[in-house]
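Attaching the record inline, Q. Sequence:
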Amino acid sequence: MFDFLILGDHFNNVMEGKNRRKFIKSLSAGFAGSLLFPSFTTANDSNHIENDFLFAKEFENKEAYWELVKDQFRFAPELRYFNNASLGPSPIPVQHATQQYRDLLDGFPSKYMWGEWKEAKEKTRKGVAELFSVSEEEIALIHNTTEGMNLIARSFDLQAGDEIILGDHEHPSGTVAWEVWQEAKGVKLVRPELPLLPNNVDEIIDVYKKAITPNTKIISMCHVVNTNGMILPVKEISEMAHKKGVLVAVDGAQSAGMFQFSLHDLGCDFYAASSHKWLFSPKGVGILFARKESQHHLKPLIVARGHKDESIRRLENYNTRNLPELLGLGAAVEFYNRIGQENIHSRSYELKDYFLSKVRNNPKFKIKTPNSNDLSCAIQVIEIIGKDVREVKAKLFDNYGIDCRPMSSFGLNALRISLAIYMSKRDVDFLVHALEEV
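Structure, as predicted:
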């Protein structure tokens, strides 16, 4: 077995008790009240909440602040979780809020399933919309990225000979949807090859530019590819596509919550994401963005009473659904906002830089993720020279309790390392030490 660092003792040594108590209180405040009265925050509370988080500046040791953030996530004993790109955890306050929603629902099922939580659901929608700087009338609350990509792919009445561009690094959930709903009708799926380690965004833009023809109707692309963590230039490609009358659909599973961006600034027509990764919501909750000008293209996957609703809500009309998990997304957005989107953005890149500083010049390793901050963030893929990635993954878990994803496609033979906000630099040191020993 392996030794596991108990961080709780470290917190007590490096933090003043007053600040620690204030931190825990600020993360938990608001959740309990929102359960009985379905409102996450009020306009009068917003300034208080924002100022409450400014106390982080009181810590001279900023790393100690992130140690406290880590303390809000509860993992299995002796587990070091570097696999957030597969599935993220929910912090303790979000777990508690979601469980209390479940308890309320089971205490009076019909009341809370049909009607009582209408306002809370809309507040969740608004919170998501504000996070991505769009209107709540452009956000549908769905189950996951796969559902969103299926909804998009099935909506279009494309004809034989029409073309859809799908880069070769697309996730299967995105490609299969287009294969089933469009390729079977004779629509051509164009699969251009993306560079694995581009030096700049222009190399990627050029790939899509060359792939567009007069028959191109849609570009479907990842924002961040799951294979090696490469960020694709959605904004530039959307601008290019729209000039040619081409729509752009984006798989945002690996970008939503990892770093800061505006969906309107990206310029895409549609964007689907699972909030249970980098937004740390309950599992099985997702987001679908559709620009107002492009919503008329979309049709619901499931039809029920209300399917003629002209608003984006027609796309999420499942009649009975797991509302505690959906409202748990609202709690997750509140938790996320209390830490601060800019803080999370900066921390994601800080962890990336710190990790790379430890491994970049080591001849035992080869980084297989683009280096530029325009092209990568908190997902880094690393090969241990001369070692089979499956064996390395097994040894890391068996000997050190490290969980990460082995990637074999595209000749990567490398580990996918997710660097999330619940990690400290000490965790990164532990990881690098384990990689060196393996």
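The longest helix spans residues 341-359. Residues 343-437 form a domain with the Aspartate Aminotransferase, domain 1 fold (CATH 3.90.1150.10).

More tomorrow.
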